[in-house]
Amino acid sequence: MKIAIINMTNGGISGGYKKYLLNILPRLASNDNIDSLLCISPSSLQVDTWFSLMQNVEFVNCSPFGFLKFRFDRSLKQKLIKFSPDLIFVPVARHFEFSGVPVLNMVQNILPFLRKEVDELSFSEKLRLYIQHIESVKALKLAKRTIVTSNFVKDFLIEKAGISKEKISLVYFGKDSPAEDISKPPGIPNGLEKKFLFTAGSLEPYRGTEDIIKAARYLKKDFPDLRILIAGQSRTATLSYHRKLLALSKSYGLSSNIIWTGQLNQSELAWCYQNCAMFIITSRMETFGMIALEAMANGCLCIAADNPPFPEILSDCAYYYSPKDSHSLVDAIKNVASWNDEKKLEITDKAKKRAESFSWDNTLEGLIREFELTII
């Protein structure tokens, strides 16, 4: 098979999407079913620099794929004509068509579909997500097949977006092995090992980070030395949300209790996973929850908002709380803190085993299967 992969982004990329490409492209390149790959991406990403040389993969740079301003430039068209793909794979819910070649799409972001359920969105963000929603529905209806990464997304698209169930398949993401080299992030005081709560992810309104801050207001009474590490950064469009979180922590007298680490690399994240007392997952919605899977793989004691797809992915390896309910989160944290060492070890072992069931090799198998079904 000759596969063209079109990374239709506006010039940026999420950490989860990048991790997907880093794991899947080399596996595709070495698979016996794949003859050659053409990987097209915005030049700002420099995707070709992420990989060692792969003989059957050609990387092509192009202009960003804006929702309202993308034009099929002549050089890109000529490149596709020369490559003559059997299939075009678009790993994001964007519409793309070329000379009748079958298209396989994938949903990595559920936010455009559920944007009305998220508070704190600016008008410009609401408008952007509305346009993205229209584009996503169009893309999924016109694509020959669509991959989803959780049953939650599959059911949602069938019931709410009117996508035919016959053209949707579930292919879970995989998990990376815990980093062998770990390093403590700069600015973290000594002696915090197993004494802090940790959460990670981009600072977006749908992440629900305020749940932790509101819970900390009550936790501080029983745990005066409480420390919370919050990893991640905001986009320009979500700076106001970040400022709100900072103001909220200050109003509760928590400025000295919360450490904002900013963006962390994998070795720094691994240190936080492996040294936190608990990992807190507050997100209102995810298509899969790769960070939650990373936390499990590192043996974290996880507390998660009872939102889909976390029960599907984490199963009974997490303690769940009611989202937006600070008292529910406080109770969850106190409950887990009361566990003896034997129970904590039992849960962390179970989490590691659960994480092992999500492998990138299984993801590859599912992807190859979808390639074959799409080409038929």
What's the arrangement of secondary structure elements?
Blueprint: E1 2-6, H1 15-29, E2 36-42, E3 57-62, H2 74-83, E4 87-90, E5 103-106, H3 111-114, H4 123-142, E6 145-148, H5 151-159, E7 168-170, E8 196-200, H6 210-222, E9 227-231, H7 239-251, E10 258-262, H8 266-275, E11 278-281, H9 290-297, E12 302-305, H10 310-314, E13 318-321, H11 326-337, H12 341-356, H13 360-375
Parallel strand pairs: 1-2, 1-4, 2-3, 4-5, 5-6, 6-7, 8-9, 8-11, 9-10, 11-12, 12-13
Helix pairs in contact: 1-13, 6-11, 9-12
Low-confidence stretches: none
Distance between the termini: 12 Å
Look up the CATH topology of the largest domain.
Rossmann fold
Strand composition percent: 15-25%
Strand order of the largest sheet: 3-2-1-4-5-6-7
Give the helix proportion (percent range): 40-55%
Overall tally of structural domains: 2
Describe this structure in words.
This protein has 376 residues and is of the alpha/beta class. The protein has 2 domains: 2-174 and 359-375, Rossmann fold (3-Layer(aba) Sandwich); 196-356, 3-Layer(aba) Sandwich (Rossmann fold), CATH 3.40.50.2000. 40% of the residues lie in helices and 16% in strands. It is built from 13 helices and 13 strands. The chain has helices at residues 15-29, 74-83, 111-114, 123-142, 151-159, 210-222, 239-251, 266-275, 290-297, 310-314, 326-337, 341-356, 360-375, and strands at residues 2-6, 36-42, 57-62, 87-90, 103-106, 145-148, 168-170, 196-200, 227-231, 258-262, 278-281, 302-305, 318-321. Strands 3-2-1-4-5-6-7 form a 7-stranded parallel sheet, sandwiched between helices. A 6-stranded parallel sheet has the order 10-9-8-11-12-13, sandwiched between helices. Helix 6 (210-222) links the parallel strand 8 (196-200) and strand 9. Helix 6 (210-222) packs across helix 11. The longest helix has 20 residues, at 123-142. The chain starts with a strand and ends with a helix. The mean pLDDT is 94.
